What does this fold into?
Amino acid sequence: MADLEGIKQAVVKGKRKEIVGLVQAAVDEGVDPQSIISDYMIEAMKEVGARFEAKKIFVPEMMMAARTMQEGLGILKPLLAAGDESQTKKSGTVVIGTVFGDLHDIGKNLVVLMLESSGFEVHNIGENVTPEAFVEKAKELDADIVGMSSLLTTGDPYVKATVEALKNSDIADRIKVICGGAAVTPKYAVEVCGADGHARDAVSAVNICREFMES
Amino acid sequence: MAQKEYIPLGVGFYPDWWVSNHGIAYGKEYYENPDYRVDTQARMQKALYERFGDIGLGNPDPAPRPLITYGMVMLPAVFGCEIIFKEDALPWAMPLNLSKEACDKLVKPDLPQTSPMKEMLEQIDHLKSKYGKVVGDINTTGVQNLALKLRGDELYIDYFEDPEFVHRLLKFCTECIIDLWRLVYPITGTGAVDVTPMCDPSIYCLPNCTVEQISGDTYIEFGLPYDNMIAEVCKPVGIHHCGNLDPVVEGYAQVKNLVFVEAGFGTDFAAARRILGPDVAFNARISPVLMKNGTAEEIEAAVKEAIDQGDPLENYSIDTVGLTTGVPDENVRAARRTAMTYGRLDSSR
It folds into this structure.
């Protein structure tokens, strides 16, 4: 019998080497791939996020969980693609980067992992990204959401400039803008800069991006 | 040494603040041209005095300070990391993202013969010949910091999947750090100046900037053995910890020859002091985000809260490092004045 709870726990505990066998066994027994993702793996990542927020786990554990999820998705995605195409519809397309003047990357990379693990198509455009480059990439990739990170308060002017560049562009009505990073407060992101949302961490980034796509 | 009247509160401005407020640029020249650096240091002291002399910052007529520094990027640069220098930011080393095989093939560099340490030694000779001394030192970076620059974020996956490799890499990084300390300490007699101004400069201060990202258990397994290797050689030692100290403070309490710890905002300072013991000097940091976005009243409250958590206060300090463009001057004044009044050591509070 398929060990679906085992799949969930493998993701929660970051058992990357176990996930492939568990997922393959479930598939072989005829479990719906979409159910494996939605009911077990995404639920697992929600638990991982809650544990991270509660400081029960830290960056390495979160990375392991996300990598484990991706290993499992590697088996399931081709099966979805071969079946009902509507089920393969991605959660949304996100362009994400660290604002100009800031070279920090680990927080932003964690958000990338979490978003990818939650079904988003994510384009990580790196660090030290100009406002113009954010707009250009969002256009080129037909993004639904643009996310930006800033660790230092030195990035504040560039967060504002980037949000304004996006909001003044001809894709403004098609995209949502989300900001995060240690230096960016909700008040600054939303009230001062005009972003659509603020994420205090990788978990809330996923939740907000989901809300954006559902709205 | 004169007895302290009140709890010291340090103020550190980020390079962008200097550029935007006083036209004083960091950039590559600051790190590679010793005369430019000495001149810049003097300009900074004068500018600080003009702006904040009323709260005891700066100096109207500073003596030349023949400072050496290379940010936190000397060892990453020695290993070939690209270093990004900007006029309004601290230098930053881009990670090499080496494979495990490439990491295992790394050999300890001959530091005096390897750029940019070779050029730094030439800077030292220049400053010594001109001023008869040098001050400051070279930030060695921390063990995990250096390993992340070499291996990249994959190190965090390796913690789970190949711990033996991680131990090899961390040991290698530790040996390189000790080599750099052994080279510089005899020249300067200090090991903390380039890490934090709040630490007794004569000790070695471990810059554990990235330890905030790992759990207490991970630190004890992968960090503590190497911090202790350093602490055996470079004793006595201090630790600079970015961010919240709480998850790793039990581990830090096991570091040998520990005499100083610096912790970021979010830390339970009182609990940390209890766990580390009264003889470990402690520096509590105020959030730079609060310093920029908060009101003077909020700053005063934060400093008071830090003081209330600080017992014993005789070896306690506070700082407000990383102040960027837009930090209101009144917030800086509020922080300093609160330390000078509420933080008086003879007060009964």
Summary: The interface with chain A takes residues 14, 16, 84, 86, 88-89, 92, 94, 153, 156-157, 159-161, 213-215, 218, 246-247, 288-289, 292-293, 322, 324-327 of chain B (CB under 8 Å). Chain B has 15 helices and ten strands.
